[in-house]
């Protein structure tokens, strides 16, 4: 039905009764449901499109009095009124049918703003149009209330953001890993310091005495300048220490001139190094965070960096709250008027529950404490595969080697080789296998550590003493793919989904005699991570592979399936040999560790062409805890990895 109306000049007769009836109806009230007219709908739609694009040249405008308004003025006013929302115009659409009374029409517009963080602000506003009597064209009646009912000229929409409470990481018992813990803020009052250089020297010596060492070290280089720039009675902060670290040096610094101390509580993990490489950190948003995700973060937000804090940052940080306010210029002598137009409360973050056990993690961190080389210790519960601890050294920071290192396993891989040989029936623990000093394969010599010789001894002795030449002799019986096949039954090379990045290993396959010989002793192209080897060790102790589990909630979507039961006779024989490693082999230092029998295998792995360059390993289990120790460039396993294992087991009692 047309939305134009018959117009009769004064004195012109009505020629038809229908025309007279129509005029009577229009004069009596509104005509509803006439929105099909291209003139009215076209003008309305052109305005909505131009609102979003900023181009309104094809639309005519008048103000509520009927005075013409330039399209450019409307564009400028829409931008000014939109304020903080100007860069993200709303989605706009007409809803329902227009109401028309004489030369005035009203249509309803659905307005939907997408606010930072994804919040949706939706409402409807009437859009009024007037038909020009001269050319029958419909013009938009422009007024600030088109954007929002509370807007007037000079107002602007502003955004206020409220950060959501960040949720925490939970341990295996469902308790927060990070909780409020006592700290001491150490500061100086400049006016009470007679000799700044002497004070700085004594503070530096005290901070360096803290154990474990503060990482990164406290940098006092700019402290003298900060003291000079500060007011004499100011509190110039030097460092904030955990209470246990402060107590180590309290007697050395408490009475120093100018020192001041403030006791507080901060949200912290149980210790400074507690699974830090795995968990990651939470820090104020950095410049690169803001640049990469301007729609996600704002200055002052807490952001997860690295580890689980980074991976699950969106879940942990929740959804920020958003408030849209209308700011009206202050009247003369008054204050800016602020009216709330929309509010979405922040959505608190959701916690992430891990499998970590606080006591086991503390024991693992303590075992690596003081280790100057890059190192890792990962522990897995045998009964269900949950990861109990993931420690990395030195210090609290660094890469999560426990999960992601890709390094040769050395003789710890003889666990896999021995299981493969036992499964094939190639040997039993009592089978005599010669252990000479050197064995040559296709012109390449293979030697034992320190060139030891055992001679003709039972295979169990070759295993306990870690005889390379014996395993090299047996390698042909495994064929080019035997090791890889057995490794896969123990979880190696699998697709593990445990909620964190992990390298599950790559086992040598398809190589010639030399590569097969090297692979049998954990060299060649075989590489693993400590967690992969802890998974192997737990599989032997358990009798089948179960993927290690770390993040329990939210549960990973696609964990690896459990492996088939291992051959009972082979597992029993391998367990006997792994026990002999501790009672009579290369890990005899663990024989008197209390708490039950320890099973294990040492490993020294060459990582380049220099035989003197080696990583050190120990894998094993006691009771329900399987574990792997790795020391990068650690040399002899008995001198580095085994002592770490001993410290771990003694602390775990």
Automatic annotation (TrEMBL):
Top-rank taxon of the source lineage equals Bacteria
Sorted UniProt keywords: Membrane, Signal
Q: Where in the cell is it found?
A: Membrane
Enumerate the spans annotated as Penicillin-binding protein dimerisation domain: 162-323
**Domain Penicillin-binding protein transpeptidase intervals:** 377-648
List the Pfam families hit by this protein, alphabetically: MecA_N (PF05223), PBP_dimer (PF03717), Transpeptidase (PF00905)
User: Could you tell me which residue ranges the NTF2-like N-terminal transpeptidase domain spans?
Assistant: 43-155
Major localization class: membrane
Entry keyword annotation includes Lipid metabolism:
no
Report the leader peptide range: 1-27
Tell me its family: Belongs to the transpeptidase family.
Q: What is this protein called?
A: Penicillin-binding protein
Record organism = Micromonospora humida
The organism that produces this protein has a lineage beginning with:
Bacteria, Bacillati, Actinomycetota, Actinomycetes, Micromonosporales
